[in-house]
Amino acid sequence: MPESRVPRRRRYLVCEPRHFAVQYAINPWMHPDEPVDVIRALDQWQALVDTYRAHGHTVDTVKPVPGLPDMVFAANAAVVVDGRVFGALFHALERRPESVPYEAWFKTEGYDVYHPESVCEGEGDLVPAGRWILAGTGFRTTREAHSEVQEYFGTPVISLTLVDPYFYHLDTALFVLDDENIAYYPEAFSPGSREVLARLYPDAVLATREDAMAFGLNSVSDGRHVFISPGATRLAEQLAGRGYVPVPVDLSEFYKAGGGIKCCTQEIREIRS
Ligand code: ARG
């Protein structure tokens, strides 16, 4: 019998995809000449929000801005740990203006936002994992930003190098299950980074390329429920075998921009008692 997992209530920040589109290509998933169905995107996104709420989580929304088609990917705007907000400096010039409405949201909620000097894309590459922060580099967030994150939070930062352009953000190749464990796709990482992950997480759930390409690693876990792409069938089985409860949510319209469940979700982490 797998052990019974305990969920922890979360606070998520999301952004309605009212102005979602693929207008430029900054990752291999994006093809501006292929149409995006905004109505379908809105329906899928609403289902994600409803699913979070149905599982007891708080969901806040930031108002979408016309002309910022990737703003729906809330994860990229910041990483929040212990109520402290480390903002983003987007790699693509097209995305840089997203920082303004997100910062405004944080300000009205009473948070100050730290402005990084180096390129970094929030929780897309900076993944708080219990006692440390896992940090991706290679395509977007820079190593300099990793040091800035460590200096800012005073938390060890583990730098990991991504090598496959389909997995350009850390959160497309790895997600945190709970304070102890993660799931990831090893081939998305450089050999040395793979070794680091194997040392830190000897018991990790390892995903296949197929599940990774189905956005299976772009999942959100509350410690028990794993909100996961329905295409990642093998991974969902593995998670169920470990006592987690996979909750499939289809965000396929967003894959056209290179994003899935986790990309659309930023977690606001307060100090834990
Ligand atoms: N089109 C966006 C980009 O390439 C997708 C971002 C996905 N977000 C994420 N957290 N992986 O920047």
UniProtKB/TrEMBL annotation:
Gene3D superfamilies recorded:
L-arginine/glycine Amidinotransferase, Chain A
Cross-referenced Pfam families? DDAH_eukar
Domain of life (superkingdom): Bacteria
Q: SUPFAM superfamilies attached here?
A: Pentein (SSF55909)
Key words, A-Z: Hydrolase
Question: Is Lyase among the key words of this record?
Answer: no
User: What PANTHER family is this protein classified in?
Assistant: DIMETHYLARGININASE, DIMETHYLARGININE DIMETHYLAMINOHYDROLASE
Provide the family line.
Belongs to the DDAH family.
Report what the protein is called: Arginine deiminase-related protein
Q: Which organism is it from?
A: Streptomyces indiaensis
